[in-house]
Amino acid sequence: MFRALASVLLCCFFLEASFWVHFSYGDLTTCSGIVPMTERGDKISITDFGGVGDGQTLNTIAFRKAIYRIQHLRRRGGTLLFVPSGVYLTDSFNLTSHMTLYLARGAVMKATQDTSNWPLIAPLPSYGRGRERPGGRYMSFIHGDGLEDVVITGENGTIDGQGDIWWNMWRQRTLQFTRPSLVEFVNSRGIVISNVIFRNSPFWNIHPVYCSDVVIRYVTILAPPDSPNTDGIDPDSSSNVCIEDSFISTGDDLVAVKSGWDEYGIAYGRPSSYITVRRVTGSTPFAGVAVGSETSGGVENVLAENINLYNSGVGVHIKTNIGRGGVIKNITVSELFMENVRTASRLDAWHRECHFHRHLSFKRYPPGHDWTKTSFLELQCHKGGCNRG
Questions:
Q1: SS3 of 1, please?
Q2: What is the structure's pLDDT at 359?
Q3: Which GO terms describe its biological process (predicted)?
Q4: All structural domains of the chain with their residue ranges
Q5: pTM, full prediction
Q6: What's 117's DSSP letter?
Q7: Within a 10 A sphere around the Cβ of 179, how many other Cβ atoms?
Q8: Which helix (H) or strand (E) holds 146?
Q9: CATH architecture of 35-234
Q10: Catalytic: 213?
Q11: Choosing from 91, 160, 234, 252, which is the catalytic residue?
């Protein structure tokens, strides 16, 4: 066991104050003000649409009817969809703009384990194919595409992906397509996720991709340490993302900043930028804060501070591979507290799990990766070995 304090500065550049939007409430610094919480004048309950929280009734039609109503009535200021205490089994479904999904205390939304009817959607353009398998991918349990002004919040209700059936398919190599995330927003802005517990995601937990102005705060994310690829929060080719005051314990990286892979990510050309991770606590066999390994669009202007890790693999991990491309710059990590963590920090240019295209042209996509002026400063370890990879 050891306790380490790592104050790590990566890619030293001066960041103008205007780039980082921070607010101070008393002694608490927060970036959450980039997306103000919206008070909805219109409120409906899932029970108004036939929702039954007995843990057995399938509520897919009820959720889709309720969201259809929100989408088409377009109440001024949007609508709050209330999910009362109970266990609501449902297939995956799409959200709509100008809505709040509110889970009361004791409310549990459970994903069905019937994978045969799970919707398929197209691969993300910055990936070019499914993350795990060729072709399309399974839609996330809760999904939003091209939306604005969406809130998922409540009184610490639970969204449970019941991911064990998907994990077993991955272990047995019987997956036909890439597993679904628990929550995914694509091409969306003005997103707030707060005061909700996320459990047992089939794949990545919260995945904002091609998004801007996203706040994720006061969430708890849980998955067994041996659950494959259950990343906590993965900002992907997104900007102005605020992650604060959360507890994450999963089977993969707690927070991983991404931007697509290989020729697809390079061609799409959208970096992840202005990502703040603050006051996050958790444990993982992998990294507390990661950049990559999907970094082909570039990653810049990331601030991570006041991070507390225990029983974990790596504190900070920047990972990529030959041919991936992209520029990583202006990454600042400070006040990283670690206990029983194998490796404090690692720069990995040959990440063993990286996807690789055998037909990749190195004339067009050079194998080098630009970590401009990367350095580690003031790394201190106490009471045990602490490696710098």
A1: coil
A2: 44
A3: carbohydrate metabolic process
A4: 1-30+253-389, 35-234
A5: 0.89
A6: G
A7: 27
A8: none
A9: 3 Solenoid (2.160)
A10: no
A11: 252
Please, what sign has the CA dihedral across residues 246, 346, 286, 233? positive
**Letter string b/e over residues 71-91, b meaning 16 or more CB atoms within 10 A of that residue's CB:** eeeebeebbbbbbbebbbbbb
Omega cis (within 30) before 293: yes
**Rounded distance, CA 267 to CA 260, Å?**
10
Q: For residues 289 and 6, is the Cβ–Cβ distance under 8 A? A: no
Please tell me the distance from the alpha carbon of residue 1 to that of residue 68, in angstroms, as a whole number: 53
pLDDT at 310 over 60: yes
CB 306: neighbour CB atoms within 10 A? 16
Tell me the C-alpha to C-alpha distance, in Å, between residue 204 and each of 139, 249, 299: 12, 13, 19
Write out the two tokens for 132.
Answer: 């795990």
The pair of structure tokens assigned to 352 is 């063993």
Residue 22 pLDDT = 55
Residue 43, number of CB atoms within 10 A of its CB: 12
pLDDT band at 325 (very low <50, low <70, confident <90, very high): confident
- Dist CA 96 CA 287 (whole Å): 33
